[in-house]
Design goal:
Keywords: Kinase, Phosphoprotein, Transferase, Two-component regulatory system. This is histidine kinase. It catalyses: ATP + protein L-histidine = ADP + protein N-phospho-L-histidine. The chain is α+β, with helices and mostly antiparallel strands and 700 residues long. The chain folds into 4 domains: 183 residues, GAF domain (Beta-Lactamase, 2-Layer Sandwich); 167 residues, Beta-Lactamase (2-Layer Sandwich); 111 residues, Signal transduction histidine kinase, dimerisation/phosphotransfer (DHp) domain (Helix Hairpins); 165 residues, Heat Shock Protein 90, CATH 3.30.565.10. 46% of the residues lie in helices and 20% in strands. The chain contains 15 helices and 21 strands. The strands form 5 sheets. The protein has a 6-stranded antiparallel sheet. A hairpin with a 2-residue loop joins strand 17 and strand 18. The longest helix is centred in the middle third of the chain and has 93 residues. It is rod-shaped. The termini are far apart.
């Protein structure tokens, strides 16, 4: 049984509640106290702004079998006084009703003993609004002299409200107004704190994204850290980043009716959060297994609708943009994000391949933020995708910070791609430069070789001109002197004959020099025919030996001939062979030391005959040996020793030997004979082909 409460005591009770409780349910406790004090069946207390009910509000009801069950509010708890309290406002009370509007407008209390009779009497044409009570006692709640709330007491049957009831309502007015203001301020402070915390989270998110970009050079690692930090800051279940690879790299526009041919690749995804829906995870894992088996079957079927591009083990899972309704919708919505509080219906229309890669099983809240090139007309690079297992409203603040995150991620992608292109370009240019430097080095080396060759040729030319000048001037000087002596030796026939012989010899030298040049020029292109005649080598050597012994008499040289008893007769050109032997014997006589012998040796081997002419002298240096057969080339120091010659003899010999299909070699080494220990033996060896064996007995 309830007992009346004095109005003054009621105010004290409410103030005591305000002083001792800071709980969010304080308004419900006040409604309970006021309802019990006035012996009402219902007490409704609510904050009011612009004649609209706002938070906080509370409704207390007394349980009674006589109440209309439809008027009972949800979430009720039975008190010891058999009362039921409700946190939500009563759905049957609307402040648009004239009774409540007058209370708020005039700030006066209203007491109605029978709600239905009062409405019918005051306004017969006004329809009776059904309420869960008949008697009404209502009044405003004030704070600082202004109305900030409303109090409504009701009874389920007609009842005459006493003056004490009005006093109780008046006593509670300021206290309830204070409570409403206190709760609103507390909620406002809490809201501001939450907002500050969110802003701090968002700021830290942007800082972490910027730090990831600054500290990493690989775009995959940057994007992985971006999605992990974003999922953690926004407290969603899962996140992933998708990148587009266009078949046409020049695709720049987004037409509402055109979807480009592009692959959507999953490049990174976050780990599941602790609050993720376990059932959704299980479904996702099961779907992943079933998808793997289905994909294998789809690869064998030509008419499959959706295929996952994963031909290589290291390739990222991918699907065509046209295969995903969500991605296609987000593409055409760019640069604005596609925010879906409950994407259940759209997810149900998603193709199986794309849905499996996106792991949409059990997902309700979905957000796709496009990664663009920096402006609304730029190419869409991909999407930042956030998923939640429950319906989730995406606030403007979240969308704003996500746009900033996507802008930074887009810049990181573009900068990384630009850096890679620049590095590739630098690498290519460096390779080209290195190749150019290598070519230049080779050209420089070749130029240096050519310059050295030119220098040597210049030296050779100077030496040749010096030699030719000497060889030409010496006979001319002798002839000039002989002519002068002829003029002075008139009448002396013996002297005239002597000088005429001198003139004849020197003219012959000049003629031989010119003939050597002509012969060398004639034989170099191998255009002179060979006249093959069977020759007798021993007779040929005997003819040459007599002439050279006379020439070598001044140096006391001898010709030592070493021939086998059976000397082969072979067919060759006798004139060419004689000229070769003549040049070699002449050369041997020039460079032989006085009192030595010139050795001529012959031997045969199979189809070849080998002839060798050796002399003993200062020899040929190792540096001169490779060039001894070059035209106009003489040994080092030969010109300084005043040894006559033009450097044409050995070059002519080599040319003639090659014309006979033979070869010639030279060697120079210290002599082994005890008599010539200080001399070198220089040998020229001819190898000439011979006719089929036809031996001549030369021993007789």
């Amino acid at each position: 049984m309830q007992y009346p409460v004095d109005p003054a005591l009621l105010g004290q009770q409410i103030c005591q509640i305000l002083a001792t409780s800071f709980d969010r349910e304080i308004l419900l406790q006040i409604a309970n106290t006021l309802g019990v004090a006035c012996q009402a069946d219902l007490c409704w207390v609510a904050a009011v702004v612009d004649q609209k009910v706002v938070n906080p509000n509370a409704c207390w009801q007394l349980w009674s079998d006589r109440q209309n069950a439809a008027g009972a509010a949800a979430d009720s708890t039975q008190t010891p006084e058999h009362s039921q309290t409700t946190k939500l406002k009563s759905p049957s009370i609307s402040l648009e009703h004239p009774i409540w509007a007058n209370v708020l407008a005039n700030g006066e209390r209203v007491a109605i003993s029978d709600y239905q009779d009062s409405l019918a009497a005051s306004s017969p044409n006004f329809p009776v609004t059904p309420l869960p009570f008949r008697a009404i006692l209502a009044g405003p709640a004030r704070f600082g002299g202004a109305v900030n709330g409303m109090m409504i007491l009701g009874k389920s049957h007609p009842h005459e409200w006493s003056v004490t009831d009005l006093q109780r309502l008046e006593a509670a007015s300021d206290a309830i107004g204070l409570a409403i203001s206190h709760i609103q301020k507390t909620q406002e402070i809490a809201s501001l704190n939450e907002q500050l915390q969110r802003q701090a989270k968002y700021k830290n998110l942007l800082i972490s994204v910027a730090a990831s970009i600054d500290t990493n050079s690989e775009v995959e690692r940057i994007l992985q850290q971006v999605i992990e930090n974003t999922v953690d800051s926004l407290e969603v279940d899962r996140g992933r980043i998708l990148l587009l690879k266009y078949t046409d790299p020049l695709f720049k526009t987004r037409s509402p009716n055109q979807t480009p041919k592009a692959k959507v690749e999953l490049v990174c995804e976050s780990a599941l959060t602790k609050n993720a829906n376990k059932q959704a995870i299980a479904q996702s894992d099961a779907g992943k297994k079933s998808y793997t088996s289905k994909t294998k079957n789809q690869e064998k079927t030509a008419n499959s609708k959706s295929k996952v591009t994963n031909s290589k083990p290291n390739n990222s899972p991918a699907f065509w943009l046209s295969e995903s309704n969500l991605c296609d919708k987000a593409f055409h919505s760019a640069p604005k994000p596609l925010a879906l509080a409950d994407a259940g219906e759209l997810i149900g229309n998603e193709q199986e391949g794309a849905a499996e890669i996106l792991k949409l099983q059990g997902i309700r809240g979905l957000l796709l933020v496009p990664l663009t090139g920096g402006g609304c007309q730029e190419t869409v690079l991909g999407f930042l995708v956030l998923q939640h297992s429950e319906p989730r409203a995406w606030s403007p603040e979240e969308l704003e910070v996500l746009e900033s995150v996507s802008a930074q991620a887009s810049r990181a992608i573009i900068q990384t791609q630009t850096l890679k292109e620049a590095q590739t370009l630098v690498f290519d240019r460096t390779a080209q430069l290195q190749q150019s430097l290598d070519v230049q080095a080779k050209l420089y080396e070749q130029s240096a070789i050519q310059l050295e060759q030119l220098r040597k040729l210049k030296l050779l030319k100077d030496e040749f001109l010096s030699t030719m000048s000497h060889e030409l001037r010496t006979p001319l000087t002798i002839m000039k002197l002989a002519i002068l002596m002829l003029k002075q030796a008139e009448g002396q026939s013996a002297s005239r004959a002597k000088y005429l012989d001198i003139l004849e010899q020197q003219c012959s030298k000049e003629t031989d020099l010119v003939n050597d040049l002509l012969t060398l020029k004639q034989f170099e292109p191998q255009q002179v025919p060979i006249s093959l005649i069977k020759i007798d080598l021993k007779r040929l050597i005997q003819d040459l030996a007599g002439d050279f012994e006379k020439q070598w008499a001044d140096k006391q040289l001898t010709l030592k001939v070493d021939l086998p008893k059976l000397t082969p007769c072979w067919e060759t050109d006798p004139d060419i062979l004689k000229r070769v032997l003549l040049e070699l014997l002449t050369n041997a006589g020039k460079y032989s030391a006085s009192g030595t012998a010139v050795v001529f040796e012959a031997s045969d081997a199979a189809d070849y005959i080998v002839l060798s002419i050796s002399n003993f002298g200062s020899g040929i240096s190792a540096a001169d040996l490779p060039h001894i057969f070059d035209k106009f080339r003489r040994g080092t120091g030969i010109t300084d020793q005043a040894i006559p010659g033009t450097g044409l003899g050995l070059a002519l010999v080599k040319c003639l030997v090659q014309h006979l299909n033979g070869t010639i070699d030279v060697s120079s080494c210290p002599a082994k004979s005890s008599e010539t220990d200080e001399l070198w033996r220089t040998s020229f060896t001819l190898t000439l082909p011979q006719s089929p064996a036809e031996l001549c007995n030369l021993g007789e």
